[in-house]
Amino acid sequence: MNIVELDPSAGFLHEFCGSQAKEFMVCDLQEPFRWLDDATTIEAFESGTLDMKGFYFTGDDYRYHIEVKAKRRYLQLLKYRFNSGVKHNGKICKWNTVILNKAQKLAWFLLDKCKQIGFIKPSPSLQRCDTRDLRRRILELTQKEVKELGIGKSALHYMRKRARPRTVQDP
């Protein structure tokens, strides 16, 4: 954040607290680009790069932790995504360049050097890689398989809901 002359501790969406050393501006700037991580996570599970065997619980904190090898595989996918090209301002840029550009624009906006800022473009381009076989497999999962995979009831409900064929209703 210092490279674009923004105070990393002063956020707009995330709470400021002078006694904490958190970088709230970084947290704010991650929000418009959170989908990059979300899409990478979905891709990692769909491709088999990650599975539930790479995660574990510790203590009573009810949070999953990720194994070191699984984390390395995931970070490779995330690095690939951030280094992928995207059309921005008439040229192909890496996502990390786009994010830096947006941070600079935000600084200019806050310093009244520009009158508007936009985070909508470039917009995400996502492609599904599911197939009819995958959707059929989700619909046919047994309770034993669901338990072995560690899928919760609500997650299974929505997976099955999305896997069902869509029908067009007649008026």
Topology, please?
Elements (H helix, E strand, L loop, with lengths): L23 H7 L3 H14 L7 E3 L6 E3 L1 H16 L1 E4 L2 E4 H16 L21 H8 L3 H7 L3 H11 L8
Antiparallel strand pairs: 1-2, 3-4
The first-to-last residue Cα distance is: 54 Å
CATH architecture type of the largest domain: Up-down Bundle
- Poorly predicted ranges: 167-171
Q: What is the CATH top level name of the largest domain?
A: Mainly Alpha
Helix content: 40-55%
The CATH homologous superfamily of the largest domain is named CRISPR-associated endonuclease Cas1, C-terminal domain
CATH topology of the largest domain: Four Helix Bundle (Hemerythrin (Met), subunit A)
SS element count, helices: 7
User: What's the domain count?
Assistant: 2
Strand order of the largest sheet: 1-2
Shape: globular
Radius of gyration: 21 Å
How does this structure look, described?
The strands form two sheets. The chain has a two-stranded antiparallel sheet with strand order 1-2. The chain has 171 residues and is mainly alpha-helical. It has two domains: 2-126, Up-down Bundle (Four Helix Bundle (Hemerythrin (Met), subunit A)), CATH 1.20.120; 130-166, no CATH class. The termini are far apart. The chain is built from seven helices and four strands; from the N terminus they run H-H-E-E-H-E-E-H-H-H-H.
